[in-house]
TrEMBL record:
Protein's UniProt name: Class II aldolase/adducin family protein
Entry's family note: Belongs to the aldolase class II family.
Pfam families named in the record: Aldolase_II (PF00596)
Origin superkingdom: Bacteria
Amino acid sequence: MPEPTPVPVDQLHFAMPPVHTSVEEERAHRKERLAGALRLFGEYGYEEGVSGHITARDPEFGDCYWVNPFGAPFDGLRPDELILVNGEGQVVEGSRHVNQAAFAVHAQVHRARPDVVAVAHTHSVHGRALAALGELVEPITQESCAFYEDHALYDAYTGVVVDEEEGRRIAAALGPRKAIVLRNHGLLTVGDSVDAAAWWFLTLERSCQVQLAARAAGKPVLIEHRDAVTTREQLGSDLVAWINYQPLWSRISRTF
C-alpha cells in the first residue's frame, strides 16, 4: 500500500470572519450571533435575574444597538426577539423594554469606541468575586496573558449605574483595552465582533476562576513580563478570539 499523500494546505477548510455583501446581511448575521452568545451565557450560568447584557452595534445606524429585552431569559432567545435601542436608551424596534441601568454603560462604551461592534457584561460569579477584591487578572496562565496590560480596573462603586456620566467614566477607564473589571460589580468585555466580545468574556471569567482557585491553593507563579507580552501578542487579537469562539458557535447554532 503506497504511503498516504498529504492533502494540499489550500484544500483544507479554515473558518475566517465572513465578508458581507449588504447591510441587511450583516445585520442578520450580528443578530444571529448575538442571540447565540446570549444562549451560551445562559448555559454557563451568567444570567442573574434581569442583570446582564450583550449589545451589538447596528451596521447601518451607528448609534443604535441590538440587545436582549428586559426580563427575557437568555435560554432559547431568538434573533427576532432582540430589540434595537438608540444611544438615548429609547427602543426603536421591538415590543419589550430595555434595562436602562445596563444600557447606560453599554451606550457610552460604544460611543467612546467606534471600533467596537459588541459589548458584553453580566454578573458572573467568578468575575464578581475578583471584582470584590478590586484586582486585575494576573499573568499566571496562557489564557490570562491575553489580558496582560490590556484590561483595566474601574476602582469605584456608586450603586446601580443609571446616568450617562457614570457610563462615560467607565468608558474612559476602559480606554483602548479589551476588558475592564468593575470593582464590586463584575466584568465587561468588548470586541470587533459579537464572537470576539463573547469569547473575551468567557475566557476572562475562567481566568478569574483559575486565579481565585490558584490563590486559595497557594501562591501563584507569575509569567515573566516579556513572555506575557509575547503571549498576548499571539493570542490577544480579536481575530484569535473569533477563531477560538467558533467551536462554541458551531455547537450553539444547532439549537436555532
